[in-house]
């Protein structure tokens, strides 16, 4: 589960990065769109200046009205056409701006079909823009054919200035984008460092827990050994008490018989107390064994978690197999120990019953 969560987090992180890059591209397109709008406004101002020049020429050349009337009308028509084309370009660029904003919104909402439709509309608008630019170039060629060199030179100079401004703006945009990318990279590096530190802290805590559990296991093993020694001593004592005594059965007086019977009763009571003590020790031994089993399970689970964090899959599988085998072995040992102890208790009880029967 932890590995799946890590894969899912990595996939979600990649999606977020992809979305961030798309947003940056769209912002760049929006800025370019604004630059184009500024360019068009400058062109409109240029056309207004040209109109003023034409009016001045009309005022200066009133004497030659008959000869240059047609030429001036043609110039006015051409300028009007230029104005109309620029207005159309302005409208198309505004539409492109709106479509880019819609694209940004749909990208944030993750609507793929609407996003494709808007992309198609953007392509159509770009084609229209190209057509209008071609028309502008044709008009400029027409001015060149009519040998209006002065106007043509003015237009060319203004276009060069606008191109230089546009290049400067693009360079500034590129610098801003580079700064943004650097900031993003720094943030990612900081996040990675934080994650590494958290993982290291988690690993240290796991190692401390493992050491504590190992110490507890050692203490439990020592207690188990002491209990086993006590059990063995009690069993030896019971066996020694079960040995036949040197009491004679044929006596002459009644006092000797009464003293031997009291001794036997005291021995039986002592054996019963020893048996009860053995039972209590057995219960304590079982509890300690269960606790030992639980600590071993906890130790193995912590090792599994540690291997998961370190992404060691092969070692993880081997440890799982070892865990299963260890559990089976512990269960078998517990069962065997219980059986042996129960058999010993049964034998001692039988001996006690026999002694009681002999007394009776």
TrEMBL record:
Localisation per UniProt entry: Membrane
Which PROSITE patterns does this chain map to? Answer: ABC_TM1, ABC_TM1F
Residue span, ABC transmembrane type-1 domain: 160-314, 161-332
This entry's Gene Ontology molecular function terms read:
ABC-type transporter activity; ATP binding
Keyword set for this entry?
Membrane, Transmembrane, Transmembrane helix
Q: Where is the signal peptide?
A: none
Question: How does this protein sit in the membrane?
Answer: Multi-pass membrane protein
| GO CC, alphabetical | membrane
Coarse class of the primary localization is membrane
Transmembrane stretches, start-end: 21-54, 74-107, 114-145, 151-179, 186-213, 219-243, 264-283, 289-308, 313-332, 338-358
What is the protein name for this chain?
ABC transmembrane type-1 domain-containing protein
């Amino acid at each position: 589960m932890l590995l799946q969560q890590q894969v899912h987090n990595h996939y979600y992180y990649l999606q977020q990065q992809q979305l961030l890059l798309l947003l940056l591209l769209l912002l760049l397109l929006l800025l370019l769109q604004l630059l184009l709008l500024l360019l068009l406004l400058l062109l409109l101002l240029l056309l207004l200046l040209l109109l003023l020049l034409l009016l001045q020429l009309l005022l200066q050349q009133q004497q030659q009205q008959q000869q240059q009337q047609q030429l001036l009308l043609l110039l006015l028509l051409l300028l009007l056409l230029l104005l109309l084309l620029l207005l159309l370009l302005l409208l198309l660029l505004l539409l492109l701006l709106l479509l880019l904003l819609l694209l940004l919104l749909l990208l944030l909402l993750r609507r793929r079909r609407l996003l494709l439709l808007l992309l198609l509309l953007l392509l159509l608008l770009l084609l229209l823009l190209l057509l209008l630019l071609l028309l502008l170039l044709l008009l400029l060629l027409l001015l060149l054919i009519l040998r209006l060199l002065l106007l043509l030179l003015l237009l060319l100079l203004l276009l060069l200035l606008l191109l230089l401004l546009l290049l400067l703006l693009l360079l500034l945009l590129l610098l801003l984008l580079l700064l943004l990318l650097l900031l993003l990279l720094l943030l990612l590096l900081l996040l990675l460092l934080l994650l590494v530190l958290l993982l290291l802290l988690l690993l240290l805590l796991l190692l401390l827990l493992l050491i504590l559990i190992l110490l507890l296991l050692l203490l439990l093993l020592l207690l188990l050994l002491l209990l086993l020694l006590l059990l063995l001593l009690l069993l030896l004592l019971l066996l020694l008490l079960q040995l036949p005594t040197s009491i004679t059965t044929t006596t002459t007086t009644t006092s000797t018989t009464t003293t031997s019977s009291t001794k036997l009763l005291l021995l039986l009571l002592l054996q019963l107390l020893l048996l009860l003590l053995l039972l209590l020790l057995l219960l304590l031994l079982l509890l300690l064994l269960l606790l030992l089993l639980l600590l071993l399970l906890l130790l193995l689970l912590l090792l599994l978690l540690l291997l998961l964090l370190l992404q060691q899959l092969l070692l993880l599988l081997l440890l799982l197999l070892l865990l299963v085998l260890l559990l089976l072995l512990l269960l078998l040992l517990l069962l065997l120990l219980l059986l042996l102890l129960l058999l010993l208790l049964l034998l001692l009880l039988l001996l006690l019953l026999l002694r009681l029967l002999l007394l009776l």
